[in-house]
């Protein structure tokens, strides 16, 4: 599960939902104002902070739990 804030995570929520349909929660994640200029969110309950949206998306892809 990926959790991002629509206001401060600095990621395009629509692109993220295209990447992972039905696996994205968009809500306040309690990190507002703490990671200015970074792209961040929770990936499988782990806070991940990256320098760019693209780096965050790559982290999302690499940290996905395999589905069985």
Commentary on this structure:
The protein is an alpha+beta fold. It has one domain (2-63). Helix content is 26%, strand content 24%. It has a four-stranded mixed beta sheet with strand order 2-1-3-4, covered by helices on one side. β3 (39-43) and β4 (46-50) form a beta hairpin. It is globular and about 25 Å long.
In short:
It contains two helices and four strands, in the order E-H-E-E-E-H. The chain is of the alpha+beta class and 68 residues long.
Give descriptors for this structure.
68 residues; alpha+beta; four-stranded mixed beta sheet; globular
Give the oligomer, counting copies of the same chain as homo and different chains as hetero.
Answer: single chain
Give the topology string: H per helix, E per strand: EHEEEH
* Large-scale geometry: globular
Radius of gyration: 11 Å
Task: Give the amount of beta strand, in percent.
Answer: 15-25%
Low-confidence spans: none
- The chain-level structural class is alpha+beta
The count of domains is 1
**Largest sheet, if any?**
4 strands, mixed
Helix content: 25-40%
Instruction: Compute the separation of the termini in Å.
Output: 15 Å
The strands making up the biggest β-sheet line up spatially as: 2-1-3-4
Q: Count the strands?
A: 4
Mean pLDDT: 91
- Number of helix segments? 2
């Amino acid at each position: 599960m990926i959790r991002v804030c629509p206001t401060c995570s600095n990621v395009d929520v629509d692109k993220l939902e295209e990447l992972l349909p039905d696996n994205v929660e968009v809500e306040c994640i309690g990190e507002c104002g703490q990671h200015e200029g970074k792209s961040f969110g929770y990936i499988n309950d782990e806070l991940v902070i990256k320098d760019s949206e693209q780096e965050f998306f790559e982290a999302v892809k690499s940290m996905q739990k395999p589905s069985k």
